[in-house]
Amino acid sequence: MPRAKLRTPELRDRVLQAAMAMLADEGVTAFTARKVAQRADTSVPAVYELFGDKAGLVREIFFEGFRRLLHRLENGASIDDPRADLARVIQVFRGFVLDNPVLAEVMFARPFAEFDPGAEDLQAAAAVREFFVGGVRRCVAAGQMAGDPTDAAHVLLALAQGMAAQETAGWLGSSQASIDRRWDLAIHAVIDGFAPESARSSG
After folding, report:
1. Per-residue confidence (pLDDT) for residue 203, from 0 to 100
2. DNA binding happens at which residues (predicted)?
3. What DSSP letter does each residue of 128-181 carry, written as one string?
4. DSSP 8-state assignment for residue 125
5. What pLDDT, on the 0 to 100 scale, is given for residue 56?
6. What domains are defined for the chain?
7. Three-state DSSP class for 202?
8. pTM above the 0.85 mark?
9. Partner of 136 for a Cys bridge, out of 19, 82, 152, 162, CB 3.0 to 4.6 A?
C-alpha cells in the first residue's frame, strides 16, 4: 500500500510558522530543517515533502515576508497629504525591518547559500514596489513630485532598505533622536529631489 502523503494545508502552515519563529529566535546560522521539524512537532521527511528541500522552505519564508510587509503597508492609517503619506509609508517599511531584522535579511539579502532568488522569486516584491509606486503617483497628481513614478519608487525603496540596514546594524547614530533626525533628513531630501522644477526654482 502506498505511504499516505504527509502534506496537509494545516501542517504546511504549522511548519512555516515554526520556521519563521525559529529564524527570528535563533538566526540564520542555527536554521536547519531538523530544528524546524522539532518546533512544528513533525518529521524532517514531512518538511521535505511539503517544501522539497531547505531551499524550498527558505523560499516560502521569503514569500511570507513580503506578504507580511504588504499587509502592514496596506493596513497603516493613511494621511490626506500625499507627500506626508509617502513619508509615512517609508517609516512603516522601517518599522517592519526593525521588528523583523532576520526576516528582512532573507528578503533583501542572500544569507542562505541554498536559496538565491531568481527572477520569478523576485516577483514576490512586486506588490510592495507597486504600493510605493501608487504613493508616488498620488504625489505627482498633487503636483508635489515629478518624473516617472516607477523610477522614484525604486529610489525610495532603495533608500528605505539602506537606511533600515544601517539602523539595524547600529551604524545610523548613537541616540534615538539622531537616528530619527537622519531618517527625516534622508526621506525629505530624496522626495524634495523629485519635486517639480517650478517648486525647486521658487524654493
Report:
1. 55
2. 32-51
3. HHHHHHHHHHHHHHTTS--S-HHHHHHHHHHHHHHHHHHHHTT-S-SSHHHHHH
4. G
5. 96
6. 8-52 (1.10.10.60), 61-202 (1.10.357.10)
7. helix
8. yes
9. 152
Check residue 76 and give its pLDDT. 86
What are the tens digits of pLDDT across the range 145-165?
999 999 999 999 999 999 999
Residue 130 corresponds to which amino acid? E
Contact call for residues 44 and 18 (beta carbons, < 8 A):
no
Nearest partner of 88 among 151, 146, 138, judged by Cα: 138
Distances (CA, A) of 105 to 29, 44, 139: 12, 25, 30
Question: In 18-171, at which residue ranges do the beta strands (DSSP E only) sit?
Answer: none
- Mean pLDDT computed over every residue of the chain: 93
